[in-house]
């Protein structure tokens, strides 16, 4: 496994729409392993492949209950509303309150190319929605007015 460089700021790859993974290969498994190692090293709870410059629909998430790999994830149902602070490994030092669904149903592949479906709530749901947004070229700051972005160094809104 390797720690990859996390793309930040205005890197154009962060605005690209990721392409579906047609087949789970050893190379894809290595990318997932590298993503997990990179996420843990950066003390994050989720990472999308585009954040390391790979324009594929791959996500890793761990909110404290163990690592979840998602290949070609899609949110098939969403309900409820929760407003909570989010940050992003690709936007270091920025936070903001984002409204997300409380409950979601997710469909994805596992590493064996089996379709998995599960429900996620609260922080797990928030993390998955955040990472799926990355796959669609969306950053959490896209949901905020500039005056609602909090700069962590100063804890001030700009």
From TrEMBL:
Keywords: Hydrolase, Iron, Metal-binding, Protein biosynthesis
Active site positions, chain numbering: 131
EC class of the enzyme, as a word: hydrolase
InterPro entries for this protein: Peptide_deformylase, Peptide_deformylase_sf
Amino-acid positions noted as binding Fe cation in the UniProt annotation, renumbered to this chain: 88, 130, 134
EC id: 3.5.1.88
SUPFAM superfamilies tied to this protein: Peptide deformylase (SSF56420)
Swiss-Prot/TrEMBL catalytic activity: N-terminal N-formyl-L-methionyl-[peptide] + H2O = N-terminal L-methionyl-[peptide] + formate
Textual note on the cofactor: Binds 1 Fe(2+) ion.
BP GO annotations: translation
Molecular function as annotated in GO: metal ion binding; peptide deformylase activity
Cofactor(s) of this protein: Fe(2+)
Pfam families on file: Pep_deformylase (PF01327)
Alphabetical list of PANTHER family matching this protein: PEPTIDE DEFORMYLASE
Functional summary from the UniProt entry: Removes the formyl group from the N-terminal Met of newly synthesized proteins. Requires at least a dipeptide for an efficient rate of reaction. N-terminal L-methionine is a prerequisite for activity but the enzyme has broad specificity at other positions.
Family in the record: Belongs to the polypeptide deformylase family.
NCBIfam families cross-referenced by the UniProt entry: pept_deformyl, PRK00150.1-3
Protein name: Peptide deformylase
Species assigned in the record: Alicyclobacillus mengziensis
Gene name of the record: def
